Protein 1
Amino acid sequence: MTPPALVLASASPRRRALLAQLGIPFEIEPPHVDETLLPGERAEAYVLRLARKKAEVVHARHRNATVLAADTSVVLNGAVLGKPGTVDEALQMLRGLSGRTHQVLTAVAVAGAGERLVTASVTFAPVSEAALRWYVSTGEPMDKAGAYAVQGIGAFLVERIEGSHSAVVGLPLVETLELLREAGYTLPWNDR
């Protein structure tokens, strides 16, 4: 008997790559949800709400599939740093992160099976203005939460990560596998 399909409710190439490296077959269907932070919403509640909503939206179109979704936010002093809309916003975010420790919150959800929240602490080295401007000129920061990619060029900014590296990239693998098992999804190594 063939297990139900796995659908990744995400447009993120980073999430796709993390899941693919495990040899798990999946389809991709990006969700289209409003990602606006609600007034007074805490970062933890925000990422959990978005991951759950993304999974639910795609599951409504794929009722017989296992649907996996995630959301990641960069948080500095309680403030959620989204994706920069302009070069100036990217520079402002990166200046704020330079030489400081911030949190990366990633929520992962499987429709009907629940969700998990994973928090990692990331410390940036002190970075010169020239280096920040050069980094922004590469274009990489423009579609990334907090204006950097730890798995890309932005790795040169990061001095230390405490916690799950895969969660910082965008999909906490340990928690993802736990949720898939709980949802009854058969993993390639079938250790149920």
Protein 2
Amino acid sequence: MTLNIQPKLIIHGGAGSSLQGKGGLIKVRESLHRIVSEVYTLLLAGETAKTSVVHGCKLLEDDPRFNAGTGSVLQSDGQVRMSAALMDGDIQRFSGVINVSRVKNPIELAQFLQVCADRVLSDFGSLELARQLQIPSYDPLTDIRLQEWIEERQGNFQKTMAGVVSELNETNTDPESHREDNAGYGTIGVVALDGYGKLAAGTSTGGKGFEKIGRVSDSAMPAGNYATCRAAVSCTGIGEDIIDECLAAKIVIRVTDGMSLPQAIQRSFTEADKNQRDLGAIALDDQGTIAWGKTSQVLLAAYHNGDNIGDTLEWHDSSGLIGYC
């Protein structure tokens, strides 16, 4: 099949208040650009948006720098519980898993559920599905995340969430750099427009960290991951804020109803900012417009616009609530 249009791609690795002490801007940029390059090569080779999104999410889940899959944060009881969702914009179909444990790539379960009658499963159902699919048991816990949880337990969980990006900068030995001044939060996400004009979005997360047992994030809801044939969005940030705004679905519906993607994101983020929400989002429309928005200080996103790779890592508050290309 011949490609009809130029594919486009945008990914994110979360949001937060600082890149200091989180592997640094250079290391995060290297990770995001590497993944964008690999996924975009698939799109150029004729792979579908949905398959490319799943592949990109798996790469992000496998990178312990990010809070999804390997490197996920721990809930208050010291357990890793992950959630993920996939939405095929071409057929407007959503699937996902909530609070799943002992799997390497939650997005793979969401992908399988695309063809099932029951398309969103919670913890026990997700584990049973993994068993039926004979997916090997896997422990996503890293030493850094365990130490982070132990330190917070000693302080009776004073933080409301963990850092979004694992501390992988070996040159940073200052223990204070791991503290609240570098707080972060979020998910990983991938949004793609393939060469056939089809859109898809995928989102995966380890949660906030230190939350109540069984807390459900936005990532496996249309509030945090949504797509139609007109637009697709993946969100990051504080899940409760994203749910309250129903952010992903709101943006996509506004585009579907006739707004341009930049207009839809601008209006949605102006509303979110007025409501004092803390969140971010990446998006694509069927015309190939790449867009993103944030009310947080930092959005860890990178994209391929068909000509080259760019990112939002040095995009600060003074740049406004949204960006696009």
Protein 3
Amino acid sequence: MIFWAFSFIWFKQANETLRPVTIVFFRLVIAVILLSAFLFLTGKFVKIKKEDRKLFILLSFFEPFFYFIGESHGLTYVSATVASVLISTIPVFATLGAWLIFGERLKIINYAGIIISFLGVVVFILNKDGGFSFSIKGVMLLSLAVFSAVGYNLTLSKLVGNYGPVFIVFVQNLIGVILFLPVFLIFDFQHLIISSFTIKSILPILELSFFASCGAFILFAWSVRKMGITRANVFTNFIPILTAFFSFLIFGEKLTVQNMVGILIVIAGIFMSQINGHRHNIDDALTLTGKTA
């Protein structure tokens, strides 16, 4: 959770000198190299079934492609803390999506959690005059990331039973590199050539790749096997709190009482929406949602 909380901060640091697509592209390239080495050493490469190829492509379009388009550009307009609060609502909307598409029956407390979490976001981003206290463009871009992650989650539920979690992340990131390559070459390549490379700009990308894209995911997958999905997923509620704390220490970001109340309401809603878990394949999908890159 600490690695994922830091990922918002590392992106903001890299974004001081590099553009969003550049950061995402090189983050994915490095993550693919690291994950392929891990799969090779553990002998966990498998052949993708023909009928699953379209699902893997759709999965990769949702995440990392559309997800990172929304998250990376959204982070250029809002603080790391705001981004982490909005992204933390992914499990809530994934639960709602599972109900709408798969007909999952939820308990009253789950529906209440969905509503409360949404109200928490409203409390967090609205000022006392009823207007947005944060960039509406940033909020909309991060909303794209959230709904992309929901689409990813629902697609993932059809694959998670047949492939290992690390292999799935490797494949989606590999396809993601292919999808981002033309975008990077068209929009960011010329800017990259004239950019001055320093340790300050490169180190956050390495941290994002090693700690967030690989380390955090592998640690979480290991924890799920030891603790179970529901117990492990509860810990993700701490991400916005940790991000707010680290942002205060590193960037000097300050939160109002209203912001803190909003964060607590969001976390309470997320916790309520996940009580008693869901069908096994949906639960496995939820362990990866929004935490794969």
Protein 4
Amino acid sequence: MATFGFQKIEVENTTDFPTIRRGRLEVLQVNLGYRCNLACTHCHVDAGPKRTESMDRSTIGEVLDFLRRGQVKTLDLTGGAPEMNPHFRLLVSKARQLGVHVIDRCNLTILEEPGYENLAAFLAEQQVEIVASLPCYLEDNVDKQRGKGVFQASIAALKKLNRLGYGAGGELKLNLVFNPQGPRLPPSQESLETAYKAHLSKQFGITFDRLYTLTNMPIRRFAHALEREGKLQHYLQLLRDSFDAANLEGLMCRTTISVDWRGYVYDCDFNQMLKLPLAGRRTHLREVSLDLIDNGIIATDDHCYGCTAGQGSSCGGALKA
């Protein structure tokens, strides 16, 4: 039984998803908390303005300690809105001092919120790569999925980032993220990127580097919505039927571990939400050694079919053209 939604959903006790092992650790993905200024319908974290979970200063220090001893080259920050953590800037600046590449998974609208007016300039100063959610280039679709007014706030934020030099093909990388509307797989990432770039350039003069297409995972808020509409089992079957073994080699969990806001470690962000711990036991980041990680068996369940369906899905977008 796996907890895909707010309630326990009956699935097979053991999955038939193929056994996979981790390779060399390259990315430490850290969830800084579930607080967010938005409450998107596709959010598998169930983040929102009323959530209070937030990584404390002590755990931030343990993240930095792991970056030093683990020689991890990329720190991938997520949430909620990771920027709403009061220690966000400290973590970013200290990680950059260690020579670590930092990715901020930004919802864009946070850059327009009161109190965050100089956040974009800080990100540019620290040469932080921005991976920004923009689930469509049409206003009605974005506002339906993320809330009224979100599209216009996102456009304003993108223009601000462009003025700072983001998305111009240089060192300041700006990548956008597409999520489908409802229980369907994303279209071709390559063709959709072309459409995004043409529309945003023509209509708003906006440029960006890459578009990442991500499959919506049947976890938490999205799973609850599907269950309410009677579509959950159909979507789970779609993911299973669309399995492509060619995607196994590129799965993000093979080079990434995920840390929750309390410092506990998982194979990926999705396993974190489903309470499937790294190496089969609840382990804190301070207890993790590279021996535990390298070549370890990755905890899997039926939700893993979401990352291997169709063209594949990872934090870096589609796994194949």
